[in-house]
Amino acid sequence: MVTPVRSGQQVKLHVWWNSTLPVGTGYVVTATHVDSEKCTLKDSPFQNNKHIKCAPVVASTENSTEVIIPSDDSGYVKHECPIQLHCTYSLVVETMSLSDTITDLIQVPDCVDGLCSCHYEEHLPTLVNTSAVINKARNQLIVSWTLGAFNETDLPDNVTLQAIYIGVRRGTNNDLGWGGQHSSMKELTLPIDTSMHSFDIKDFAGSKFIFVIQLKVIDTRHCERAAAPLRGNMFCENIVWLAYVTSYLSFLVVCI
């Protein structure tokens, strides 16, 4: 018998079995990820064996016919796969002498005690027509966006869109490649039908027009789909202004 259990932000398997073997018999329990239509691991850490996606999770016990795996909370063995929601595992219980074996195939559900899989997050809508405008006259940073089209049938039955997340940082150094510092960060969530929000620039520590803006769609499982972040440097002085935005970004900051 197997029951998935939550342990912090991880999932473990509580495995137990019946046995008529003598007290003191040692057992080894092995859980191996099995690729399925629902859950396929894409990358392998083994250079010479790419068909092996990760090492099995292994635990041992004596004088007991139950075990929780992984049993070690201090960290995973190198290349060992954590137990993942929405995935399939081959489970083997065998005696240390290898004389007796029990096998089973289990499907870990989407959610365990409020911890849920985000396997479908690529089907959440993207944010399009995004822009960030600095209005010097009003000393405002105005961020706007449009919720892109999506198919609700691609999401789990109990999942709906919940909020728009905005995170903004203001930088203090023109040479910072990432454009901001954490100490100046402002974060908020807005109703999903919102399409614009204005920030008072005076609320951000610093004096330079260097901002990083991150937008995300968040659903009721707290899964999210992020838009490409804005990294823009802007300097406004009377009618002279300069804007620099790296070529691979999809946002634009302008000064008006």
Primary descriptors:
256 residues, mainly beta, Immunoglobulin-like, 2 domains, six-stranded antiparallel sheet, elongated
Structure description:
The chain has 256 residues and is mainly beta. The protein has no helices and 19 strands. The protein folds into two domains: 114 residues, Immunoglobulin-like (Sandwich), CATH 2.60.40; 113 residues, Immunoglobulin-like.
Set down the secondary structure blueprint.
Blueprint: E1 2-7, E2 10-16, E3 26-34, E4 57-62, E5 66-69, E6 88-95, E7 101-107, E8 111-112, E9 115-116, E10 127-135, E11 140-147, E12 161-170, E13 186-191, E14 196-200, E15 209-219, E16 224-226, E17 230-237, E18 240-245, E19 253-255
Parallel strand pairs: 10-19
Antiparallel strand pairs: 1-2, 2-5, 3-4, 3-6, 6-7, 8-9, 10-11, 11-14, 12-13, 12-15, 15-16, 15-17, 17-18
CATH class of the largest domain: Mainly Beta
End-to-end C-alpha gap: 66 Å
The low-confidence parts are: 232-252
Biggest beta sheet attributes: 6 strands, antiparallel
Under the CATH scheme, the architecture of the largest domain is Sandwich
Cα radius of gyration in angstroms? 25 Å
Count of the separate structural domains: 2
Report the β-strand fraction as a percent range. over 45%
Task: Look at the helices and sheets and give the structural class.
Answer: mainly beta
Cα shape: elongated
- The helix content is under 10%
Give me the number of helical elements: 0
N-to-C SSE string, H for helix and E for strand = EEEEEEEEEEEEEEEEEEE
Give the number of DSSP strands: 19
